[in-house]
Amino acid sequence: MRFGLMAACAMAICVPSGTAQDKKGQEKETPLWAESWEEAVKEATIRNVCILYHIHGDGAQKIQEMVDDVRKGSYVQASKAFVNVIVNQNNGHGEETVTVDGQEVRRCKRYGGIPCDSHVKMWESISKTGAVQGDNAQIMIPQVWILGPGGSLIEAKNSNGGNVIPSSDVLKDAMQIMQKLGGEHMSYDKWLQMSAARGEWKRAWEKGDWKKAMAAALTLKKSSSKILRIEGEQGLNKMSDKGDELLSQAHSLLSSNPEEGKKLYKKIAEEFKPLSASRKAAEALAAIK
Ligand SMILES: [Zn+2]
Q: How far, in Å, is the centroid of ligand 1 from the Cα of 108?
């Protein structure tokens, strides 16, 4: 499916594209742009929050004003309640290399936070929002779409002749829509905690660090997100199977190497709480003594 762009500005007010310029005294921060459509929908679904889907182009002064608007600290903070997406087919913004978590990554100079490739590729997701039908549809820019957690269009805020769409209006409408959708909405800070728990679970499970794996699975099990609760439950089931497997090993060791057998029982008793394997290991130890 191919889409065309209709620039909403009159040619007279179009100016060449370029890097966003800092305004004196204005904090220049980076919105948390999603790296890909799949990541955006995944995060929004787990958090049960709306996606703010910004569709830009280059060349219009009005759009540049919108870029400046969303890169203010006030927007960056408030928009964390949602997932943010930027769509721009152009990649000529220039890039800079920054270090994130010890790794050098490329960042678009106009939007920050992502490389130009990300906002160019995001264009392909337009058809997935259900907002446009048929081939060669024309899309007016700029627009900001408020999408539901699953990525479907709920409200389109059009530029109406190329006017700036204030980010404060977008945030207000998105919040009202989200309240109507109902359910619990996960804050960004909580999302970071949950993401850390998911990473911790994976690392600890692979390393056989049962105590940390157990803590991570229990954290996920208590999440407000059903998806994460299921992940936590699955983790606990795996831990339960692993605990039973180690109990058998400890039992076998008792006859060949009693000290090692006791050591393993002790480990299971300490690291598999509150699973039944922990209780059984403690009982086995008590019976030996
Ligand atoms: Zn760019």
A: 4
